[in-house]
């Protein structure tokens, strides 16, 4: 299951939650109870392994 990062706009409480793709996003802050929670998006980590990812490794 994917882990999502949330932040409350009201109290700035940060938390992560494991949710299924079919679950509704969390909207109520567990800290202050307000409906000000939004998902925090960030770039996923990318890791290149093996040959073929460098200029010197182009097809031979």
How would you sum up this structure, described in words?
The chain is an all-beta fold. It has a domain of 37 residues. The chain has no helices and three strands. It has a three-stranded antiparallel β-sheet with strand order 2-1-3, with no helix packed on it. The radius of gyration is 19 Å and the shape is elongated. The N and C termini lie far apart (40 Å). 5% of the residues are buried. The model has no long low-confidence stretch (mean pLDDT 85).
Concise structural overview:
With 60 residues, the protein is mostly beta strands. It contains no helices and 3 strands.
List the helices and strands and how they pair.
Blueprint: E1 3-8, E2 14-18, E3 37-39
Antiparallel strand pairs: 1-2, 1-3
């Amino acid at each position: 299951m994917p882990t999502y990062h949330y932040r409350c706009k009201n109290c700035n409480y940060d938390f992560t939650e494991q949710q299924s793709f079919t679950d509704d996003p969390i909207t109520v802050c567990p800290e202050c109870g307000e409906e000000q929670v939004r998902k925090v998006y960030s770039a996923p980590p990318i890791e290149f392994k093996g040959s073929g990812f460098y200029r010197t490794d182009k097809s031979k």
